[in-house]
Amino acid sequence: xxxxxxxxxxxxxxxxxxxxxxxxxxxxxxxxxxxxxxxxxxxxxxxxxxxxxxxxxxxxxxxxxxxxxxxxxxxxxxxxxxxxxxxxxxxxxxxxxxxxxxxxxxxxxxxxxxxxxxxxxxxxxxxxxxxxxxxxxxxxxxxxxxxxxxxxxxxxxxxxxxxxxxxxxxxxxxxxxxxxxxxxxxxxxxxxxxxxxxxxxxxxxxxxxxxxxxxxxxxxxxxxxxxxxxxxxxxxxxxxxxxxxxxxxxxxxxxxxxxxxxxxxxxxxxxxxxxxxxxxxxxxxxxxxxxxxxxxxxxxxxxxxxxxxxxxxxxxxxxxxxxxxxxxxxxxxxxxxxxxxxxxxxxxxxxxxxxxxxxxxxxxxxxxxxxxxxxxxxxxxxxxxxxxxxxxxxxxxxxxxxxxxxxxxxxxxxxxxxxxxxxxxxxxxxxxxxxxxxxxxxxxxxxxxxxxxxxxxxxxxxxxxxxxxxxxxxxxxxxxxxxxxxxxxxxxxxxxxxxxxxxxxxxxxxxxxxxxxxxxxxxxxxxxxxxxxxxxxxxxxxxxxxxxxxxxxxxxxxxxxxxxxxxxxxxxxxxxxxxxxxxxxxxxxxxxxxxxxxxxxxxxx
Length: 605
Prior knowledge:
This is Endothelin-converting enzyme 1. The chain is an alpha/beta fold. The chain folds into 2 domains: 29-260, Neutral endopeptidase , domain2 (Neutral endopeptidase, domain 2); 279-340 and 391-587, Collagenase (Catalytic Domain) (3-Layer(aba) Sandwich). The chain contains 28 helices and 9 strands. The strands form 3 sheets. It has a 4-stranded mixed β-sheet with strand order 1-2-4-3. Strands 5-7-6 form a 3-stranded mixed β-sheet, with helices on one face. The chain has a two-stranded antiparallel sheet with strand order 8-9. Strand 6 (401-403) and strand 7 (408-412) form a beta hairpin. Helix 6 (56-64) runs parallel beside helix 14 and helix 18 (291-314) packs across helix 24. The protein starts with 7 loop residues before the first helix and ends in an 18-residue tail after the last helix.
């Protein structure tokens, strides 16, 4: 079954031990033999001859030919205004560290660990220690300067600001210091595609490009070339050998406080999952998901949609014109459950995987094959309409999502398992867990970002001004509430602005799911209670909701979650939603004015 779906990346090796031995034997020689390694100043040494010959646009073009994003990147996804077509986007540099880390104090432990990581990888690849140290410092300083000219996350919630269409020719004129047309054509040449001057390009962050020239002018040619060289090296060698894996682990130890390195078999499995997720997903569904489960979830979705329509009707702060648009959007919202209905047959999977020809015992070559096939498929998306049947998660993923541009909610089979869902759980537990998640995803269609897209997934303002003011006022209550929480482990306050969409969805999802559960069980006798627990079904509902967000963390991981996550940490997802829930307060007899039943509560939906 595994080999049949193209999983020969690991199946072709007689044993993991032999596979590992072969990796060590081949080492990084394939990378060192590339022209990109041979022109990397860090490996050449102090006497790099390219300082006077360096041409930024020549070098940029060469790296785009091997799909290395340099000082900027291109990506392809649906057009914001017309989601029936794909569009090319020009965006900021893709840096190794999140912007939030790079703008810290220069002697921050995270930055020092990253600098050490760059230095040690360069030394392993053959650089002189002194040269590697100076070049790593200079490249990190450049990345810090690039991070400073990027838009902060708090300013990225308005998609109307992102929609800045232009043409390839206009980009060449407006940013003449960058030969963007040449770079894009180089990138698309990978798939033997051409791009003409009239090709529309969307620029989400024009301010970055307005400020980039000054950063380039203040940076040495050697550092610019090294910036590209480090990016290429990190992609190509990754964690191939045990020494490289150890360097990766040393970095993660600082970032996440982890104490053990990931076993190689898990690394291999993760790489296989990244490419062959369809075949693995089919096998997961065959073993762990039933049509009865799909029918149950379908019914839950219908119940939650009906309840959310009631919540819209009850929103006295919304006028009829805006409500009419909201009803249309809710009615048009589609759902996908468990697994794709298309492209999931044996024959279709064989067709999708036929280009992935694996070489036994050659991990480097196999990674190259997988990478280039993925890049070609991505580029070709530009010339085809978006696939409405496409999933953006694997069937085994323990997650769910709402797509603004497709106006759909998606629940892979992986999350339709205990403790989120089980057909034999009482309704109180299923509605408290997966029911809340279903409600959460529905509400995403009407949060601070989702509300800006209409029923067809088009970026369009369908709100009357006074109704939008009402929405923003209610959202501000959520922002203030969560912004006043402090994560004691991270020793940081939460960012209520950045997390507002998820918090609005949590609160609305919990409210809607509880109401749907009560409507489902109205007039029925309560089912049997769980043995050993003196809890009512209403209490079980909220316990089931809270249980799914239980987690254990390290301080470094907590800092990473608060700094970079779009969700607040799990305990605050619980506290924040329950503090705003009169239903929870009644179920657990919380005194009004107590911490879990405050006098003042927030509610958007």
